[in-house]
Amino acid sequence: MNRLQKYAATAVLTSAALAMPGGPAFAQAKPALKAEAIAGVDARAKLVQEMVDSIFSFAEPGFQEFRTSEYITAILEKNGFKITKGVAGIPTAWTATWGEGGPMIALGSDIDCLLGLSQVPGSPTIKPLVVGAPGHGEGHNSGMPLIVAAALAAKDVMVKHGIKGRLMIWPGVAEELLATKAFYVRAGLFKDVDASIFTHVSNDFGTAYGELGNNGLVSVEYSFHGKTSHAAGAPWAGRSALDGVEVMDMAWNMRREHLPLTQRSHYVITNGGGQPNIVPGEAAVWYYFRERTFKSIADLYQTGNEISEAAAKATGTTVTRKVLGYAAPNFANKPLAEAAYRNIKAVGMPKWSAADQAFAKAIQEANGLKPQPLKSDIGALSTPETRGVSQGGGSDDIGDIMWAVPTITIRYPSNVPSTIGHNVTAAIAMATPIAHKGAVAGAKAVAMTVLDMMTSPKLLADAKTYFNDVQKKTDTYAPVLTAEDQPAIHLNEKIMAELRPQMEKYYYDPSKYGSYLEQLGIAYPPVTK
Predict the structure, then answer these.
(1) What 8-state DSSP symbol labels residue 491?
(2) What per-residue confidence (pLDDT) applies to 6?
(3) pLDDT tens across 264-296, in order?
(4) I need a labelling partner for 210 at 20 to 30 A (CA). Which of 170, 195, 401, 469 fits?
(5) Distance between CA 443 and CA 425 in Å, rounded?
(6) For residue 2, is it left (φ>0), alpha (ψ between -120 and 50) or beta?
């Protein structure tokens, strides 16, 4: 008898006890409810596989998730959810709500992918489906399938047992640009929400609470404005906007030596001018400024602004700036994390097959990655004490929602150890049985935690107390967004207009093929000589 069978058997005994006079109170019936939720997720394993593979094949980057959003919302609408599109002024953003009365629980996951990471799934070697196209090198194609399966399973249990409560499903649009969740909060999307569960792909299965140690961020583009002239005939008559960009970048790189160790900053030149024989009249550079606290983010941003203005003055140009996104530092809720962790432990890691392990090994060997098998055990709950002192790092704009309502992130095991984030290697397994099994496991933990929240007022009360009395004592939510700052919905529009016709040829058709690998004619695991 495996872990879930034992769990279900315990639930049956508990349900029988409920029917006896003087039996346990309703709150103790949760194991029976959770067993039903587990069965509900298992019944939707095929839906999870189809969604994971379909969203992988759409491969839409930030603000261009049109096909992905249409696909997901159609499934939710068919299952009784009310869809509201274009929320917060973002065409690909939406909410899906269901239920009445009781607490409102928000469930979310990201849906965008990354530029230039197109990859044939199931091929251990790097092989783009469409050269130069976007791809799911962060695994965001698996999160929303998990959330949909969890929500539908929890909804079935709530309907059957008359449990009052509401669900709100929402997508992380343009997360790789850190460009929407602060706008969601500003628009009031979470004003009626009691608690929130977010999910993110990983190679392990767990959650965390407290200050998570990552950096917040402000994303800003600086546009320099000069004067064109013949670059050979009369260069003295021109003022190079590109010179402004280059002076800013040089000055920033020199300033790095004198910045705190926790900062992370990086940039790309988004406009370097037209052609060499014309002094560039317009040029632009896009920066990410990352730091650990709200104040230090704002201070780093101000330093960037000062350097941009100095660069403009030095080159006889002018400069304007536009905030393209913001992400708050992450702070997860302790009572919710502890509840979710108990459910993660009850579910356990997926049962990896020999083929799954062979495929993971093939990816690692083909790409010179450290050999590590797919994990079989659940690690410890991540706490501030076990994480130690943070020296900064990446960002995730779920932080903005974490500062709006009690929130946790559940990591689920849909990818392979040693693969590199924001790299093609992280896309290789994301439309394979590894991704499918990890999403199913994650869906069970989410569904069970939703039922905990819906049936235990004390859990939600404790979560709110921690949010107000612990989290808010550490810092104050203070994004640098102004009323004039709007979502940068123009981003990635041109590249998708160019590439989408080529990519559409590779969209997954679940009506004809049992999996995306089958459609592409790929053996699993790959046959090696």
Answers:
(1) T
(2) 52
(3) 999 999 999 999 999 999 999 999 999 999 999
(4) 170
(5) 24
(6) beta
Reported as a single tens digit per residue, the pLDDT across 438-471 is: 999 999 999 999 999 999 999 999 999 999 999 9
Q: H-helix or E-strand containing 67?
A: helix 66-78
Pairing of β 318-327 and β 216-225: antiparallel
The H or E element that residue 199 is part of is: strand 195-202
Q: 228's torsion region: left (phi>0), alpha (psi -120 to 50) or beta?
A: beta
Condensed to tens digits (0 to 9), the pLDDT of residues 84-111 reads 999 999 999 999 999 999 999 999 999 9
> What tokens were used for 304?
């960037």
Q: CA geometry: angle at 41 spanning 361 and 190, to 5°?
A: 100
Chain centroid to CA 431 = 17
Per-residue pLDDT reduced to its tens digit, 182-217: 999 999 999 999 999 999 999 999 999 999 999 999
Residues 115, 492 contacting (CB under 8 angstroms) = yes
CA 53 to each of CA 88, 478, 504: distance values in angstroms, whole numbers, following the listed order:
28, 38, 14
Which whole-number Å values give the CA distances from 455 to 12, 102, 165, 202, in the listed order? 18, 9, 9, 29
Phi, psi for 501 (deg, rounded to 5): -55, -35
Helices (H) and strands (E) in the chain, counts: 17, 12
Tokens at residue 198, please? 């977010």
Given pLDDT bands bounded at 50, 70 and 90, which one contains residue 28? very low
**Confidence class for position 27, pLDDT limits 50, 70, 90:** very low
285-288: long-range pairs with CB below 8 Å, 24+: 285/221, 285/222, 285/224, 285/245, 285/248, 285/249, 286/219, 286/220, 286/221, 286/222, 286/324, 287/219, 287/220, 287/221, 287/222, 287/252, 288/178, 288/217, 288/218, 288/219, 288/264, 288/395
